[in-house]
């Protein structure tokens, strides 16, 4: 009889927790954590490509020392940040550092346009293709994470989850800031080193008419 009463109490408690949104909060929280892990994984993938990229460019364009140094320093700053995705200020610093690295990489790849031998190097082309793919994966991972956090925060602010969250200490999560929220659902294609458009053909000389007799 006592065992039956205990099972009945546990069943009632489980039903109560499920009805107040506790289980759904757990599920959404785990989804956000998994989304954040994927974001970090793609950023790490990009950081791992940079040393080989810098070394390859340096072999052909050593005179571009400032640009190479900027990329190396930006990567170093990213690696020094111990980001906490649940802390708004920490996430802001992480996003700023990653943005600086993106800008430094863009400047480096613009400079490479001035070195035809570098652009024809197979190793550089392979690294460039990997970097382009990684930038797109970063965009996708960030977009998914933004959606997950938005879904989690919206759910947490609703009743009765609002009360459950306060009881168990769950809070809304900070999120990435985006200039264009349409990018969340449709990541743009990233293309570095695009070729300049071909010049327009020169006008053909008009045939001269014979002078009138």
Q: Could you describe the 3D structure shown?
A:
By secondary structure, the protein is mostly helical. The chain contains 7 helices and no strands. The longest helix has 39 residues, at 22-60. Residues 7-13 and 180-213 have low confidence and may be disordered.
Layout: helices, strands, pairs:
Elements: H1 2-19, H2 22-60, H3 65-79, H4 88-111, H5 116-119, H6 122-156, H7 161-168
Helix pairs in contact: 2-3, 2-6, 3-4
> What is the strand tally?
0
Describe the global form: elongated
> What is the string of helix and strand elements?
HHHHHHH
**Average pLDDT level:** 83
% residues in beta strands: under 5%
Supply the number of helical segments: 7
Helix percentage: 55-70%
Spatial separation of the terminal alpha carbons: 128 Å
| Secondary-structure content class | mainly alpha
Rg over CA atoms, rounded to whole Å, is: 27 Å
């Amino acid at each position: 009889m006592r065992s039956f009463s205990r099972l009945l109490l546990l069943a009632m408690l489980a039903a109560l927790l499920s009805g107040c949104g506790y289980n759904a909060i757990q599920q959404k929280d785990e989804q956000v954590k998994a989304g954040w892990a994927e974001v970090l994984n793609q950023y790490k993938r990009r950081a791992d490509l940079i040393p080989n990229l810098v070394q390859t460019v340096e072999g052909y364009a050593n005179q571009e020392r400032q640009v190479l140094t900027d990329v190396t320093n930006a990567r170093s700053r990213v690696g020094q940040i111990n980001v906490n995705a649940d802390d708004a200020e920490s996430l802001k610093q992480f996003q700023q550092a990653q943005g600086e690295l993106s800008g430094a990489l863009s400047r480096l790849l613009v400079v490479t346009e001035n070195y035809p031998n570098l652009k024809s190097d197979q190793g550089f082309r392979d690294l460039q293709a990997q970097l382009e793919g990684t930038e797109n994966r970063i965009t996708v991972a960030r977009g998914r994470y933004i959606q997950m956090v938005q879904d989690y925060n919206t759910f947490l602010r609703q009743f009765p989850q609002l009360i459950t969250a306060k009881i168990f200490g769950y809070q809304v999560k900070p999120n990435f800031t985006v200039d264009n929220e349409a990018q969340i659902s449709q990541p743009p294609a990233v293309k570095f080193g695009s070729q300049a458009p071909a010049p327009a053909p020169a006008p053909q000389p008009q045939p001269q008419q014979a002078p009138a007799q």
